[in-house]
Design brief:
Elements: E1 3-8, H1 14-25, E2 28-30, H2 32-40, H3 47-55, H4 61-67, H5 70-84, E3 89-92, H6 96-99, E4 106-112, H7 115-126, H8 130-152, E5 164-167, H9 173-186, H10 193-216, H11 219-222, E6 226-231, E7 234-238, E8 240-241, H12 244-256, E9 262-265, E10 268-269
Parallel strand pairs: 1-3, 1-4, 2-3, 4-5, 7-9, 8-10
Antiparallel strand pairs: 6-7
Helix pairs in contact: 1-9, 2-3, 5-10, 7-8, 10-12
């Protein structure tokens, strides 16, 4: 099983490299159409968040006041786990390298290039001026970085997130793709790919449920609630909640979710009282 994530700066050939890698290695490219279909599977309450996930356009400063909620972090994690659980895939952007950093066998790639090179490429691609190209690049680089910071509290430019960083200034997209392919072929293989896929499906379900609890009970109440998967369908809820009633509500929400067969509700109740 091969899973490759490709994070990219605008104009660094990232999308083209991803397509070449997928084709030559016989992997499924999880592109815009697949991401759109996955986003459409979201609960309608998450329409805005799923649109951001699909387009990679992060929230503005003022939107972040309302958007920056733990429920959305859980949702984005779930969507990335679901994509990866397909196995033999190339995932582009959307924080996949952050969410999957602890999953064995995932090759995490970053494509970069100097600003001057990227400006030239965007000028040629869209037939625009250098000023327009630079503005285009700065806008979309900022939006993607903003998304990672807002949702995952991570800097996408941190080299520690990646197994391989490819500067495409002096490489064609085909040659850069070959570097990625070589790295993927030489990467240590996981002993049981099916076990990894099952783990990813379980983690996706757990994060879907976690997002639901944090959404329904509101982040102010449930921001410390975490849901982990013992196995697919068997979940454990941990963390802190304010009352026994809210603990019960969290358990009921989890138990009613599709695919859940058993819930271990280990939430700790912290009763707050005021006065003498």
């Amino acid at each position: 099983m091969v899973i490759v994530t490709i994070s990219r700066l605008v104009g660094s050939f990232g999308d083209v490299i991803a397509a070449i890698v997928a084709k030559q290695m016989g992997l499924q490219l999880v592109g815009r159409q697949q991401v759109h279909e996955l986003a459409q599977s979201c609960d309608r309450e998450y329409d805005d968040a799923c649109l951001v996930y699909e387009t990679e356009l992060g929230p503005t400063f003022w939107e972040r006041i309302f958007f920056d909620r733990p429920a959305y972090t859980s949702l984005f994690q779930a969507l990335n786990f679901e994509e990866a659980s397909r196995g033999n895939v190339v995932l582009i952007g959307r924080g996949a390298q952050i969410v999957l950093r602890d999953i064995p066998g995932v090759l995490k790639v970053r494509t970069v290039a100097p600003m001057s090179v990227r400006i030239k490429r965007i000028m040629e691609r869209y037939d625009i001026s250098s000023e327009e190209a630079e503005e285009f690049i700065r806008k979309y680089d900022h939006e993607r970085d903003n998304l990672a910071r807002s949702i995952f509290r991570q800097d996408e430019n941190d080299p520690a997130l990646y197994d391989l960083v490819v500067n495409t200034e002096h490489f064609s997209s085909a040659d850069a793709a070959q570097i990625v392919i070589t790295a993927a072929e030489k990467m240590e293989k996981v002993p049981d790919p099916e076990e990894i896929q099952e783990k990813l499906r379980s983690m996706a379900l757990a994060k879907r449920v976690e997002a639901l609890i944090r959404k329904k009970l509101t982040s102010a109440i449930a921001r410390n609630v975490e849901v982990v998967a013992n196995s697919y369908g068997v979940l454990t809820i941990t963390g802190r909640i304010r009352s026994l009633k809210e603990k019960g509500s969290a358990g009921e929400l989890a138990a009613a979710h599709a695919g859940v067969t058993k819930v271990n509700n280990d939430l700790k109740v912290t009763e707050f009282s005021f006065g003498v």
